[in-house]
């Protein structure tokens, strides 16, 4: 029951996180902003999320998961309420920043529950299942949210989203049971977690695999499909939902493989990076608008990004003791979202500099991903070597 309640809180957090992505065109009109303004909204939300990862990771090691989950749900509800009433960029930024702050408290807390309450051999699958079920929130933020915006309007839609946050608080307070961690007098967990090469291997894994799909789902996928590729909004919503559904199907498989073949996890990561690069290259190089089958192929390939990034948390668990799982998980998650916000910001800046949102502009904008993929792949190879050497030296006679 504790896991199910935590996962439900995560589902609602994902809904809050991605509610901007499918409302970006409406947000631009309501808040009277352009591509740079939209990028600012998404970027600050994720910057706050990323900046909170390490503090939240340290706090969850000290005060437990329940308190952090309740606080996160309450803050996100406040953020959606502010966003529902926003009529300009400044209140919109405040609303999305609150959502980013509350969101940051959720996933790490749920992962800590998984790490402490499930045996090691089941952990990779349970982490993937957590991410998989959480993506139901992404599905709810696609077609249903688009329908609500078109049917009921801006304020009622986001007031309803705030109500979901209140429901999450009530459930967490009444159902979730989680003992507060015992006090420890040891050295700070953050420094030790950062010094561990396996933690940084997990961080670069998360960064290199997550950023493309995150930028696509959180902000730029919907405008790219509608304004760049000429799809109607309902078809774009279906493609975004397809990405999420395929990711849910891919997650348990990658979780099983990561648990069954732990020494091949980095190969899985590199395959995810390589196929993502190849799929984007095919779409961006296609003369004119890409055919629907190729766009479907793109979202299917992007669907592996989220499950691939979860391997980073498995590295954090493998190379760190339980007392610093929160701090290590925060470092891993923070790295992924720094990469994601970098892609979101660079795409927005490129579109603003070009001054258009047509297909050619989107081609140049999405090309900013290539250096990030390259850097991530190099760093995964680098820290994989360091982590393996450390394991060999720790063995008797090593």
Automatic annotation (TrEMBL):
Gene3D superfamilies: MFS general substrate transporter like domains. Pfam families: MFS_1. PANTHER family: CHLORAMPHENICOL EFFLUX PUMP RV0191, PURINE EFFLUX PUMP PBUE. The chain crosses the membrane at residues 37-60, 67-85, 97-114, 126-146, 158-176, 201-222, 234-256, 268-286, 292-313, 325-349, 361-381. Its main location: membrane. Keywords: Cell membrane, Membrane, Transmembrane, Transmembrane helix. It comes from Streptosporangium canum. It is found in: Cell membrane. Residues 1-388 form the Major facilitator superfamily (MFS) profile domain. It is a multi-pass membrane protein. One of its GO terms (molecular function) is transmembrane transporter activity. InterPro entries: MFS, MFS_dom, MFS_Efflux_Transporters, MFS_trans_sf. One of its GO terms (cellular component) is plasma membrane. This is Cyanate permease.
């Amino acid at each position: 029951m504790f896991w199910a309640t935590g996962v439900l809180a995560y589902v609602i957090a994902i809904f809050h996180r991605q509610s901007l992505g499918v409302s970006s065109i409406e947000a631009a009109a309501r808040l009277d902003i352009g591509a740079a303004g939209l990028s600012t909204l998404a970027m600050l939300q994720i910057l706050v999320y990323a900046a909170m990862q390490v503090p939240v990771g340290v706090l969850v090691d000290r005060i437990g998961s329940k308190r952090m989950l309740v606080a996160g749900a309450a803050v996100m509800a406040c953020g959606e309420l502010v966003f529902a009433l926003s009529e300009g960029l400044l209140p919109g930024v405040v609303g999305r920043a609150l959502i980013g702050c509350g969101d940051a408290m959720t996933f790490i807390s749920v992962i800590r529950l998984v790490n402490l309450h499930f045996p090691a051999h089941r952990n990779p699958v349970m982490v993937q299942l957590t991410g998989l079920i959480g993506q139901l929130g992404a599905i709810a933020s696609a077609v249903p949210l688009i329908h609500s915006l078109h049917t009921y309007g801006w304020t009622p839609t986001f007031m309803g989203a705030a109500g979901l946050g209140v429901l999450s608080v009530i459930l967490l307070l009444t159902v979730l049971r989680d003992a507060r961690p015992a006090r420890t007098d040891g050295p700070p967990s953050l420094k030790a977690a950062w010094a561990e090469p396996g933690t940084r291997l997990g961080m670069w894994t998360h960064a290199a695999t997550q950023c493309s799909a995150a930028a696509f789902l959180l902000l730029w996928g919907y405008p790219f499909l509608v304004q760049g590729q000429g799809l109607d909004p309902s078809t774009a919503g279906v493609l975004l939902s397809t990405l999420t559904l395929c990711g849910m199907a891919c997650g348990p498989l990658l979780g099983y493989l990561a648990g069954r073949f732990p020494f091949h996890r980095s190969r899985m990561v590199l395959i995810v990076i390589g196929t993502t690069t190849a799929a984007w290259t095919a779409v961006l190089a296609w003369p004119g608008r890409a055919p629907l089958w190729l766009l479907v192929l793109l979202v299917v390939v992007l669907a592996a990004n989220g499950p691939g990034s979860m391997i980073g948390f498995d590295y954090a668990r493998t190379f760190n003791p339980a007392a610093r799982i929160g701090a290590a998980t925060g470092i891993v998650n923070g790295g992924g979202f720094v990469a994601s916000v970098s892609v979101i910001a660079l795409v927005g800046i490129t579109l603003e500099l070009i001054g258009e949102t047509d297909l050619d502009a989107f081609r140049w904008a999405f090309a900013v991903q290539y250096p990030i993929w390259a850097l991530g792949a190099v760093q995964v190879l680098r820290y994989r070597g360091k982590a393996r050497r450390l394991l060999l030296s720790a063995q008797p006679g090593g």
